[in-house]
Every structure is written in C-alpha cells, then in structure tokens.
Design a protein that fits this description.
CATH superfamily of the largest domain: Glycogen Phosphorylase B
Helix content: 40-55%
Largest sheet: 7 strands, parallel
Length: about 375
Amino acid sequence: MNVLHICRNLAGSTVFPQLFESLAGKGLNQTVFVPEKTDRNRGKNVPRGVTTHYAVTLRTTDTLFFGRKAARTVPCMESCLNPADFDLIHAHTLFTDGSIARALARKWHRPYLVTLRYSDVAVIWKYEWHLRPLARAILREAAGVICLSPVVREQVIRFLPPQEQAALAEKCRVIPNGLDPAWLEGAVPRTKPGTPVRVGFAGGMNRRKRPMDALAAVHLADAGSGQFVFTGCGTGALEERVRQKLHPGDSLMGRITGREAMTAFYESCDLLLVPSSAETFGMVYLEAMSRGVPVLYTRGQGFDGQFPEGEVGFSVACGNRREMAERLRQILDGYGERSRRCIRHAGEYVWPRVTDRFIAAYQAALE
C-alpha cells in the first residue's frame, strides 16, 4: 500500500510529523504533499524518513474562489508525483486538503479519505456558508471519513441530509490523535491530591480556551477555604486579565514549550481544567492523564465521549462556572484509583496503537 497525504497544516503542527513517522514505523509507504501560502514554511516539521513536497499553491483570495486551490495545486502535484505510485489519498482537512483530494481522485481514479479538524467543524462550516455544498460533495465521494472524537462524528454526520446520513455513518470512523509514548515514561499514579489542591490550566489565554472560567471556578470551589489554588500556563490576549484576578497562592507561568517542561507542569498539578468553548480533540487532557492527573473537559466538545463519565474525570457545561466548581470537589472522591485509570487509558492512545487504526481505515477504503 502506498499512501499520498495532503497536509496543508504540516508546518504548524506537532501531531502530523508524529503520525507520519509512526506510520513509517509500521512499514507504510507514503508521501506527504504540503500546499502552502508562503515559502517561509518550507522545511518546517518535515517527518523523518518520509518523502515530503512543499509547494506554494494557495492564496488568501482563495477563500472567495475556493475552487482555485485544487485547480492550481493538482498540476503542481502532477509535475513532481506519479499518480501510478499511489493506491490511496488521505486529506488531513475537510476543505483545503479535501477539495484537492477530491479533484485528484476524479482525475487519477484513486479513493481518498478525509479527516475533519477543529477549523473544519467549528469555523469554516459554521461561518463560510458558501462552502457547504463543497463539503457535502467531499464527504459523499470519500471512501472513508475520520473524526477525532465521537462528538465530532455525530456533528459531521449531520452535515448531510437525513436520507444520506446512514451511508456517511457507515464509512465514518473515530480515530483520535496519538500520544508520544515518552509521555508515559516514569509515570506514577497519585495516591491523593496535594494540600491545597492545585488545579492546572494549560492553553492559550484566549476566549476559546476560557481561562477566566477556569480561574473563577477554582475560586468558587475554594470559597476562601484555602483548599484549591489555580496554576496556569499559556499566553494570549487574556493573560493580563487573568493575572489581575489571581488570588494569593495562584500562579501563572506564561508560555511553556517542550515535552519535558510540560511534563513538569502537569506533575505540579493535581487536576486539569480546560473548559474550551470548542475543541476537536484536546491533547492537553491526554498529556495530563499520562502523568496521572484527572481532567475536567467541556461537554459536547472533542474529548467528551472518549471515556465514560467519571472514568478519568468529568465533563462540564461550557461557561457554567458553578458546575465546574462542583466537579472540582467531586473529582477528589476516589482520586487515587482515578489517577491510576488516567495512566492506563493514556497508554491506549500511544501512536503505535493509533496508527494501527489508521492502517485499518486505509485497508477498508481500498476494499
């Protein structure tokens, strides 16, 4: 099997290189093509041992004239790739990559799969109404559709009219992002939380991640008792507002990068609360779990549905600070056992296991 990946977002992601390298470790033959808007991203995040082609074929004005993306990119791809070399095409976003994959599939007579991500579901589909017919056509013609969570799968199925939803459901699989096995090295379950309980927040200080809700929920749970404190990391437009609202004992570290630094941050926390208003998956929850930290995540968003309620933590309603505070207190019951479950379940999401599911999806698409 030889797979052609179309991956518009390679330069800005750590997930894609890990996916492609893990697939290569399974012996999959693959090539990555990266359509770009600028040559500045050429060579960024190139997966080791995987042939990768960059080409500047996208423009800002393509939002209005979306069909030009594929019309400009397909000839460029044909100049450096031989269609006969590939059995299957995998588009890693619905709109940009998916439109190119659909054009290639029609011309090369190859099946394609498409993965849906945050921008596809929560941004472009929601606001770019003129692109909805294109999205439906891509989904109809795809040999397989991949979603990162059960919640996203249910949303995507509703993209099509009711009479077409059953057919889409049959070819729509849930395959989450994977976790570098190194996150689990030396992980030890917690027997009990610290005193005070340190509630972590990791993410951008922006409206989508809702750090103000997390901070307010910690203060509601604490109610002046000294039982809970807030510890956050991240930068963004709301950073100064968060700093102004910190109570004695709270802390905000700013931006932290790298697995070792993030591991140290998670290990300094007893719980993780990131109440995002929109999330396709949410790697921070999985990373925290790998260090034995129970999590609170937004109900109806990407991480919701990955595990039974209460197994590794609880879902909370977006914006409901009082419910978040109640869950912060509730999650402490059975803390030690929940911490052990977090590490065990995080191990189910390591890349070698996740890539087995991708390969199964490829085989199904070819059949």
